[in-house]
Design brief:
Blueprint (H helix, E strand, L loop, with lengths): L14 H19 L17 H10 L32 E6 L6 H7 L4 H12 L12 E6 L11 E9 L2 E7 L6 E7 L2 E2 L3 E6 L4 H7 L4 H12 L4 H4 L5 E11 L4 E13 L2 E9 L4 E4 L23 E4 L6 E4 L2 E4 L5 E3 L4 E8 L5 E7 L3 E11 L6 E2 L4 E5 L9 E8 L2 E3 L14 H14 L20 H4 L6
Antiparallel strand pairs: 1-2, 2-3, 3-4, 4-5, 6-8, 7-8, 8-9, 9-10, 10-11, 12-13, 14-21, 15-20, 16-17, 16-19, 17-18, 18-20, 18-21, 21-22
This protein binds zinc ion.
Length: 473
């Protein structure tokens, strides 16, 4: 055996090598000779099948449509079927067309198969009542198309109806075949009484309010309004009562359209703890006392950790102990510096050891100064809003590296910025306050509705005084 086999990598060309090669080919040929053959299994059909039967099989077979299969769902015509010269058509075609986002009203009608001339006329009729562009996307249009006047002509419109607005339904009809199209307005009664949702806060205010029937958008607005007023985590207790009033429209046909939050209240032990009502053009919330929504306390002038605090310290450059009259924020060169609250720029430029700096004057005899900037982004005299970028972190002036030295003055005296938490609030007064209070009293009269889905249908058109609530100014 060892004479027949050989490592074909060694002694190439020798007799032993050729013998080994011959063995290799011989064994390979032997292996290939025993390769099994694959062929379809033969099985005799149970019944004789001729061309007709096979045609029947094909029509019921499930096979790729690309191969001409009929999937068995719809059986193809057999040999006995002869196509008709002309197929009868439905005389009327009822359908629903939906206005898509960015869709044209006329385009939609034409896509539904309407006669283009009719589509143009309908669009003009509808457009004469409501701006066609303001019809909500997703609006469904019920269409009935009539019989074609000729074989290949488009179908004319018989009737059409749509909810053009929350409080208006429009119908276009053709009184007589071939006659003109007529528009009919069908106003829908709408009740504008605001919706009031009250309940116990419980474990989760959000979940409780949703369960009580407040729409998600209203609960979010409610939480946001409250956050500006109280510390939700600590000050709101599970036993408190939430009180949400939102503008709300109910159509006589049953649809509901929740609007914006009008009132946000919290009650504890029967006492009103928080009462916020939307007021004014900007839609800000004001407390019952007429104090506007908190524009919140200070915000950090720069995103970064506090390095050196306010107080006596050894100066890093001058080397002796002296007062550090501000707060140092460590931040990278070029980090934006923002105004901690609304104010006016009283100084912008080089200020001695402070380097490039900006000084702001805020309400309440409060000033802030921002030092060592690499670049200043405001001009003296300019008004800035809370959070507005006023410059960028640098290392100008007496500074060992990029950081923000931030100072605060109250009545001209340096105070520790870390110790101050103050708020600026808008305030209503005089005649405006009186009107605000009157509206607040009126809105609190709204009766709490039952669950959102189970409110009784409005019986009558909205009553006089309550409508006013929607027009808070
Ligand atoms: Zn400093």
């Amino acid at each position: 055996m060892s004479q027949l086999t050989h490592d074909l990598g060694s002694d190439i060309g020798s007799r032993r090598w050729f013998r080994g090669l011959a063995t290799f080919f011989g064994m390979t040929a032997g292996a290939l000779a025993f390769w099994p053959g694959f062929a379809p299994l033969e099985a005799a059909p149970l019944m004789p099948s001729d061309a007709d039967v096979r045609g029947e099989y094909r029509r019921q077979a499930i096979a790729p449509l690309a191969l001409g299969a009929d999937t068995g769902r719809r059986i193809g015509p057999g040999t006995l079927v002869r196509p008709l010269a002309s197929a009868p058509e439905r005389p009327r075609l009822e359908m629903v067309a939906t206005l898509g986002r960015g869709d044209g009203f006329e385009t939609m009608l034409r896509r539904a198969g309407m006669d283009p001339a009719d589509a143009r006329q309908v669009t003009a009729l509808v457009g004469g009542t409501v701006a066609v562009g303001e019809i909500e996307p997703g609006t469904r249009v019920d269409l009935v198309l009539g019989r074609r006047p000729a074989v290949s002509a488009p179908r004319p419109l018989d009737t059409l109806s749509l909810r053009a607005r929350f409080d208006l339904e429009l119908a276009v009809t053709r009184a007589t075949p071939g006659g003109p199209l007529v528009l009919e307005r069908k106003p829908i009664r709408v009740d504008d009484t605001p919706l009031r949702v009250r309940g116990i806060v419980g474990e989760s205010l959000y979940r409780s309010a949703r369960a009580a029937g407040a729409p998600a958008s209203a609960v979010q607005a409610y939480l946001k309004a409250l956050t500006d007023q109280i510390d939700l985590e600590r000050e709101l207790r599970p036993g408190d009562t939430f009180d949400i009033i939102l503008s709300h429209r109910r159509a006589a046909t049953g649809e509901r359209l929740p609007g914006q939050l009008l009132y946000a209240g919290v009650e504890r032990d029967g006492q009103r703890k928080v009462q916020l009502m939307r007021w004014g053009r900007e839609g800000r919330f004001f407390e019952a006392s007429g104090i506007g929504e908190q524009k919140d306390g200070l915000i950090a002038p720069v995103a970064g950790p506090v390095g050196s605090r306010f107080g006596m310290r050894r100066h890093p450059i001058l080397g002796y102990r002296r007062m550090h009259a501000g707060l140092d924020y460590r931040a990278r060169h070029g980090t934006p510096i923002v105004a901690v609250t609304d104010g006016q720029v009283t100084g912008a430029g080089r200020m001695g050891g402070c380097g490039y700096a900006v000084r702001l004057r805020h309400g309440g005899a409060l000033d802030t100064r921002y030092c060592h900037m690499s670049r200043i982004a405001v001009d003296a005299g300019q008004n800035v809003r809370r959070g507005q970028v006023i410059g960028y972190v640098g290392s100008t002036g007496l500074s060992t590296g990029p950081h923000l030295h931030y100072e605060m003055y109250r009545g001209g005296r340096a105070v520790d910025p870390a110790s101050v938490r103050y708020v600026t609030r808008a305030m209503l007064s005089g005649e405006q306050l009186a009107r605000f209070r009157a509206t607040l009293a009126r809105i609190r009269e709204v009766e709490a509705g039952a669950a959102f889905g189970s409110l009784p249908k409005p019986a009558a058109a909205p009553s006089g005084p309550r409508r006013e609530i929607d027009r808070l100014d």
